[in-house]
Structures
1.
Amino acid sequence: MHNRIDSMATIYQLNDAQVQQLHGLYQTAWWAKERTLEQARQCVQGSQIVIGLTDDAGNLIAFTRVVTDYTFKAFMFDVLVHESYQGKGLGNQLVNLVKNHPRLKDVTHIELYCRPNLCDFYGQHGFTPNVGDITLMRLNIEDR
């Protein structure tokens, strides 16, 4: 995979080869290294909106997905950019594609998780950690 962006395309469905490439992208992220190829397939299939950016050969170079009710909430997950393409604005492009997606035009809130070091990145897109008196809570399935 080279790092020129001559004829990048935006895609809204992934073929099997691109799902395998997504799995490869997951392997580069500290928070997703444990995901299997089958889990990558399942999360793509279970997301209402999937956005990928491909290089001129059709290889997946950036990805995000959204889970939403199309009314109140849209949750953006897995903003990933292949390491060879980082620093070229693709993360910004993914966030803007979500923010301006026609199927999300009536959604009240777009939300996401991020580490503190990414707050400035998402803040420049209008995201804020000030969400009122809300606490993130989690149930680990093994603990049920």
2.
Amino acid sequence: MRQLKTKPAAFAAAAAVLVLDQLTKLAMRHILLDGVPRDILGSVVRVTLRYNTGAAFSLGWGGPVILSVFTVLASVFLVRYMLKIEGRKKVLWLGVVLGGAVGNLTDRLIMGKVTDFIDIGSTGWRWPTFNVADIAICIGGIAVFFLFKGSKRLEVPTKENQT
């Protein structure tokens, strides 16, 4: 019975990440001027509105169309995989990753670019600006990695292991 509740909870986690991501991006687009930083914790943590037409951390490959197609395919894979696997924590963290992917995809489909605003760094060095969806993808991906790390791998049938 517990497993039956896991799948809806994973999709609820995805929806929660998507909503939080889109609300924070909307707020930052209304509050901030493009490229003008506002300090939160001194100059170490600040918010700076930036738009990213590239991949993660503003890597400039592919453009919005290719990245959107890739994200749609990755999201379909995540949903199919979430429906097939067992394990409450695995499915929930995959839902978090899905929510982040769909959050950035939403920006690309609506605006052709992703809204970034979290700006961290000091003494002349700054991490590339990011958003809530990026946090969900990174933390969810790390959690999934460690949860799957000890799992058995699927064996591909060969003549040797079929007997």
3.
Amino acid sequence: MAKFIDKFMNWIGYTEEDYDEEAAAMEEEEEAPARKRRLVGLPSYNSALRVVVVEPNNFDEVQLVADHLKERRPVIVNLETAPMELARRIVDFLSGSVYALDGGLERIGEAIFLLVPSNVSVEANGFSGVREPLPWERE
């Protein structure tokens, strides 16, 4: 009966309830998983964008270009000194790579191409939409 009176008195605010530290610690441990927070990294806008310029002399070097695209770096590929057949194979491979990565490929010179990952957009002012043939298409 005394406990009932103590509880009633505590309920109406006349007495203080004894603080049980062990019970409070157990309650905090039970609530801890519900309070976990998930941290999410945001992209850094302070870092400088790096553009890679490549002039491949053999087909083995082209995989490095695709690796740069996978790491979300724009790449300029200069094929002016490459033999025609090699240049054709390189463009075919890089076109497929860019497509698979949802990127873009723009011709910016006679045999110079800009490849961009999906996080970069290219705007060309004054683009007429008329495309001149590639050097190996002229034959």
